Amino acid sequence: MSEFSIYLPGGMDCAATFASGQAFRWRLCGDEFCGIAGGYYARVHMQGDNIIIKTDGDEAFWCRYFAAQQDYTALRDCFCKDETLAACVHFAEGIRVLRQPFFETLCTFIISQNNNIPRITGIVQRMCETFGTCLPNGEYTFPAAETLACKTVEDLAPLRSGFRAKYLLDAARQVANGTVNEKDLEKMDIDTARKCLIEIYGVGQKVADCVLLYGLGRIETVPIDVHMRRAMENLFPNGLPLEVLPYAGIAQQFIFHYTRLGAQTHT
DNA sequence: AGCCAGGGTCTGC
DNA sequence: GCAGACCATGGC
Buried b vs exposed e over A137-175: b needs ≥16 C-beta within 10 Å? Predict the structure, then answer.
């Protein structure tokens, strides 16, 4: 297990980021957060604007995972020119949008449909324990698409994922056989990539947009669920400021957090 | 008991 | 296109 630090421009609030409904495998362990991603276990904490990571994984993976290339100081400056968006930003300034492994993100947000965060977390955990690889410390990795692709709905019964099991299997099969491929999706324009993702059984626009944003680094994508629809109508009836649109997905993360946890303190 | 949870599919207009 | 029933499961 090695330890290194990565500079995250603009910093990160681990608690706010990991609880913001984008990632489901981090938990508080003493004064650190521990989690598993991309087959790697990690314990992390912030030291100023640097994240200290203890992990077997390589630095390049975690740089990408924590979006270290993205300067959040500049982003917040841009967002805060708008008064309403500034209120959302100030409610949890340290939120970052993570870039998570593609297949894991796809499955996680298939599981998220018509579901709540505690149960999403439980299903993902059971998926790892049932089909993932056990690491020496007893933690489990997220399973590979190839592992799931040959399973049946009955095999997935221990997950208690309900009607989503058949969706997970189709996603695994399309990824395993190359029909849906991360490298190809990266090259496509957003609309083409979204259409490709929606061909997966059980993936509609909202789940596809979550995969684009959280799993493919398309930070201009805004997943619209019932809460975001209401928030946009109430807070931004004329849409987001034009300067924000290239980063609208990140703005969305602040707005979502604000409307879920902060709005009631202002109304 | 009934409703809701960061939706999607299928059917019928 | 668009509304409405239905989908498994669990917490409140």
Answer: eebbbbbbbeebbebeeeebeebebeebbebbbbbbbbb
The answer to whether A208 CB is within 7 Å of strand B is yes
Catalytic residues of A: 206
Alpha-carbon torsion (A96, A118, A123, A116), positive or negative: negative
Tokens standing for residue A134: 């056990």
What number of residues does chain A have? 267
pLDDT digits (tens, 9 = 90+) for A165-197: 999 999 999 999 999 999 999 999 999 999 999
A119 Cβ nearer than 7 Å to chain B strand: yes
List of A residues 136-165 with CB within 7 A of strand C: 157, 160-163
The answer to pTM > 0.90 is: yes
CA distance A46 to A13: 8
